[in-house]
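Q: Here's a chain of 321 amino acids. Please give me its 3D structure as tokens.
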Amino acid sequence: MAVRVAFVGVGGIAETHLKALSDNEHAEVVAACDVVPERAERAAETYGLKAYSDVDLMLDREKPDALFICVPPFAHADLEEKAAGRGIHLLVEKPLGLDREVIRSKADTIRQAGVLVATGYCLRYLDVAQQARHYLSNKEIGMVRAHYLSGFVETPWWRDMAKSGGQLVEQATHTVDITRYLAGDVKSVYARMKFGLLEHKPGTTIPSVATVCLDFESGAVGHIDTSCIQSDWSSAIEVLGRDFKLTLAGRKLTILEGEETTTYGSVSGSAHKTQDDAFIEAIRTGDRSLILSTYDDALKTVDVTLAANESALSGQPIVLL
């Protein structure tokens, strides 16, 4: 029997998930809810599902097995709690939210409910990411250098610090997460951010650039740089140790070991589809190991980014709990 799936939020990233699930014979998307009714209705016409503007009504009527939460970071409200309380499994898009204590409370509710929860850190599912993680598993890491440099996102809420948390929280969170996935957990952060250079974007309150120093639990050190004032896009992570340097840039992995350089290109398909298929299979089989980024794990990624915002505001390092 197919896993019955519903969506809340059908803008942007939801379309990617809808397309991925439409090719999965074990998934049936039955409904979608959005605060903009026209968006839900468009999804209904395209994918043959039912459109709703009331999430409680959708969950009670449709009784889905799984709910994809694809709302902006400021709009989660109690969506996770509503679904978990009904025994509905969750895929929660990144980032999990903007308040560390609220997110921790949600994590407690999810644990108590016992439902499966995946999060939207799809880069973990790339074959080159898995290969990089395997290579580093027995290596001592000295330093990590990462960056996410891009142009400005025109979505109205994205420019509002109170709604997006800024580029590091909402967008470069993927880079932060893959850094954690390869180099281990972070124990403290110290961040500097520059506001300005975005005066031509009315209503903008987010930083234009940021640099975040990281102390890892392993003893390694590192930093992540972000910018949303570039005309091109670039994202990569470098991991350095004695006599080796590993670079993961998009779907390309390069390993320099001694004087020998080896390059691998990803041969896997869409990371989103791989992630979504794994989530559906985890529900079907009960195999939690198929989910590479759980809610509790994603909480640690959002902790790094929100702590960085706190550090930039206070001018002091923040120790993560």
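Q: Can you summarize the key feature?
A: The chain is about 35% helix and 25% strand.
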